[in-house]
Amino acid sequence: MRKQHIVLVLFLLIAGCADKSAVPIPSNEFLIIAHRGASTYAPEHTMLAYEIAQQSAATYLEIDLQMTEDGVLVAMHDETVDRTTDGGGLVKDYTIEELKQLNAGEWFNSTYPSMANEAFEDLDVPTLEEVFLRFGDEANYYIEMKSPKIYEEMEEELIALLHQYDLIDVNKKLPKVIIESFSRASLTEFHELEPRLPLIQLFSFKEKAALSDQDYNSLSTYASGIGVNLNAVDKNFIHEVQQHAFQIHLYNINNEMDMKKALNLKANGAFTNTPNLAVDLLKQPNE
Predict the structure, then answer these.
(1) Per-residue pLDDT tens for 248-279?
(2) Could you say which DSSP state residue 98 is in?
(3) Are the C-beta atoms of residues 73 and 158 closer than 8 Å to each other?
(4) Which residues have C-beta within 8 Å of that of residue 231, sequence separation ≥ 6?
(5) DSSP, res 195
(6) In degrees to the nearest 10, what's the CA dihedral of 201, 60, 11, 71?
């Protein structure tokens, strides 16, 4: 970790906020979370996918994080580069200089020929810092710490970068940054280091979604809400989650029927590869 990051983290540990309770998300707005950017229309986790999502008026740009060998946070879903670049192997085995040599767009043109675009041929893997430099405080960020067990100090690096770009804004109803993960350990560590940001605990239920009172009590110590697969929930579960003062965001919703279902279920938000679809549906009068 860089020296300035170490100093920042030590400051947070020693002098950070005394109140370590979970941060609520007070907004009643239905959150449209552009999953990997507008990844139906452009290669996922590329700058162009984020730009299309921003232009579509998505509430949040969703960014999955991996980390290079030299400790740089980059936007990529998989632990390997094989699926979304012309390279092979683990992200953690690449330096940022090596990773930047890979093409992150050609795969999309061959996989989705009906959506192919010459502009995708020259796209690379963006760093998280590049995303912040491009969009600054004009965008909101919904950031997932992927595979945090294999990346030492991912939480510290992320917190330091958020501070560097002044993105920890606690004075607005709509949070500038929301952090998500399937890893409870990673989220609780993040909350200990920086308790002012809302955290979302992700779940993947194979059958009907269910949480116990013990689960809710545990979640309340660090989480602001949960992210759940759409096919596992019903209106009763969503109401129960909200009655426990959590938001619930549903994934992954990419067609009109499923988006209408999410809206009718009164969820608080949806992850979608097609953010323009959700924006358009929200503009329609209630049936």
Answers:
(1) 999 999 999 999 999 999 999 999 999 999 99
(2) H
(3) yes
(4) none
(5) T
(6) 90
Q: Are strands 199-202 and 225-229 parallel, antiparallel or unpaired?
A: parallel
Q: Nearest Cα to 127, choosing from 84, 150, 161?
A: 161
How confident is the model over 74-84, as a mean pLDDT? 98
Residue 148, sorted as left (phi over 0), alpha (psi -120 to 50) or beta, turns out to be: alpha
Provide the CA 229 distance to its chain's centre, in angstroms.
Answer: 15
For domain 3-18+25-79+125-283, give the CATH number: 3.20.20.190
The pTM for the full model equals: 0.92
The residue behind tokens 């949070």 is 175
Average pLDDT, the chain: 92
Q: In 29-138, which residue ranges form alpha helices assigned H by DSSP?
A: 47-55, 96-99, 106-111, 128-135
- Residues assigned a catalytic role: 35, 77
